Amino acid sequence: MNKYKETIYQALRLIFGALVLAALLAYADYRWMEPNRTPPCDPSKLSEGHICLTTVLKQWGYSKIVWIDARNQDAFERGTVKNGQVLSIRNDEKAADLLAKALPVLHQAGIDDKCIVVFCDRSCNAASEIAEMLKSFQLQAPIYILEGGWDEIRKNPSLAS
Question: Cα dihedral sign for 149, 150, 152, 156?
Fold first, then answer.
């Protein structure tokens, strides 16, 4: 009977070890591998007003893009675009102040022949809302929503901080 009990304990330890290993692998997949698994952006399949990162970089280059980071303040502080001009505009209690600071820059973007690219991350849908709101100001610069958002930007080490 003692050998039977020991066999059960050994089986339970193996099962527990397998569950811990599976949890660790799932976390690693979620944290480090999943962001790199997004399918490549296909410009022909995008909705109007959306743009692929490769397209915007090819057409405009780093110096001709004004990036609008629509993510929350915590995400913005953890990292954002490091090449080009970056403004934070988001839908929260500071939205009016952030917009007031950004509008002169966004009006100048049209004069300087720049484009405006709004992005968010997977957990937020603010990019579309911010882009629509910016269009109501009749800015001269074209306004795009970046397909794939922050996940696409951070795949490009020369672009993400």
Answer: positive
| Residues present in the chain in total | 161
150 within 8 A of 119, measured Cβ to Cβ: yes
Rounded to an integer, what distance in angstroms lies between the CA atom of residue 59 and that of residue 107?
A: 20
Question: CB neighbours (10 Å) of residue 24?
Answer: 10
Does residue 66 contact residue 131 with C-beta atoms inside 8 Å?
no
Cα separation, 57 vs 65, whole angstroms:
8
d(CA 57, CA 41): 13
For residue 87, the 8-state DSSP code is: E
Task: Show the tokens assigned to 152.
Answer: 């696409």
Evaluate whether 74 touches 24 at the Cβ level (below 8 Å).
Answer: no
Helix H or strand E encompassing 94: none
pLDDT tens digits, 39-95 = 678 888 999 999 999 999 999 988 999 999 999 888 898 989 988 899 999 888 888
Write out pLDDT tens, residues 104-133: 999 999 999 999 999 998 777 899 999 999
